[in-house]
Amino acid sequence: MVLEAVRPRVLATQFIPSVPPDLARAYSFSPEHSSAALVTADQDDALYVALDEATKQAPVEVAFARSLYAGSSHAPGPFSGECLGILAGASPADVREGLAACLRCLEDDACFYKADESGKLLIFPHVVSSIGRYLAREAELEEGRSIAYLIAPPIEAVLGLDAALKAAEVKLQKSFAPPTNTNFAGGYLVGELEQCEAAATAFARTIVELARSPRVV
Amino acid sequence: MRTQKLMEELRASLTGRSALAGSPGAPRESRSRRARPELPCGPAPADRELLEKLKAATIAQIGVGRAGVRLRTATFLKFLGDRAVAVEAVRSTLALDFAARLSAVEVQSEARDLDEFLLRPDLGRRLPGEAVELIRSRCAVAPDVQVVVGDGLSAHAVSENAPPLLEALFPELERRGLKAGTTVLVRRARMRTLTVVGEAVGARTAVILLGERPGLGTGDGMSAYLVFRPRASAVESDHEVVSNIHARGIPPAEAARKIADLLEEFLRVGASGVPRQAGAAPSPQEQARIEPCTGDACLRRDPYSPKRIVEREPRAPLAVSAQARCAG
What we know:
A: about 220 residues, alpha+beta, Alpha-Beta Plaits, 6-stranded antiparallel sheet, 4-stranded antiparallel sheet, 10 strands, globular, B: about 325 residues, alpha/beta, Rossmann fold, 15 helices, about 10% strand
């Protein structure tokens, strides 16, 4: 079914109650942080949004979050997925709370959507009504702003961003041009919440239409 | 949530269907609130999904239904089996070489055997004079932290959880610049032996790892009781506890971290237990956390989850001779 949600799969969740200082430095923890929660999922962008959610609900920071090359279908191991996220906090209880918030978000909020009947074309037309500390840093915006977090394969992303920028009063705050680690492309659009919603809707609509008739000549 | 609703609306507009009609993919719609009961008897749950969640969150037997006025046979048999686990745990003993494995000095409380230990709690709290002498002669004097290990009411819990906890605890203490004394193993120990040992060596703080009273089906729970300046006059409220240290509760490595944090805090504040908590005003961060939360997030948050977030291979349970005990 078109625009059906494809829920991310969480592949591994682990805690390190006490991170050795060398490891903490290697993964750029703040000095006051020595506990970590690790999570992998098969959807990188959903995990980024979920990690951001954790920074809103718990006193944790996203110490590390990177997408693996070529996406989840080329993962190096069964628990790698597409992305590794590390939450850092001052105590085990903090990172536990952060991880719980992250998992709740993956369970019923952030996810990719099918843009064609077969489900081969997946897009991430996600609206974050209020960004937390992590996305604020990534998008170079202040906390609490609304963004449309729009991701799709390269041609779909370019066409979708075009439609989104024309359909709503939003600004392209950051663009991810192809090729990225996973070869997906897209960007963060910033504006009022309703404008972000309109942008995400236009983005998804355009890509669904593209999938129905990919060649115009 | 917001995005999902947007996409549902967009799909409806693309296919010309009303968004209000919902879709087969929407999770809210698929929830059947009044399914046929699969229990032979007893009332059908009003919210089966919630009941399943509650049942999955505990190993206690809840929502088991009934047969007429009595328990169902399966429930009753499981009850006997669970009880057998508890009895086995109480009757378990520490291996003879356990003290050697921990490089600990081994002593025994005044209770001469297990039955006396169970019947006379007062004897389990005391150490004979020669045991105190042995501790004085063999242990490091005036350490920052005196570690005591006691079998308590479940030697099984201690054999399982104390070694990994200590392995994580000593580096944690070292990192904080705290000197740990010589570990003392007390057989047939109650919690109060903590202050006896701690006072004998003149420790600044002390911690005892103790097997907890088993519950139905759980024989492997260990607790750590902590105290600042161990002394005979210390009362219950001077102690603090990190409880539920086992595979399905607080993993030993995490407990080690908590214990080290608490001991460091005792030394910083100069108190433990209620005096410490009464003296220290909560930080704004803590204050925010104890403020009552409202709304949806509050309903979905579990304050305590006995289930690990990651499903792991369950540990081999205690050797249970449920059959034999049922028959007996």
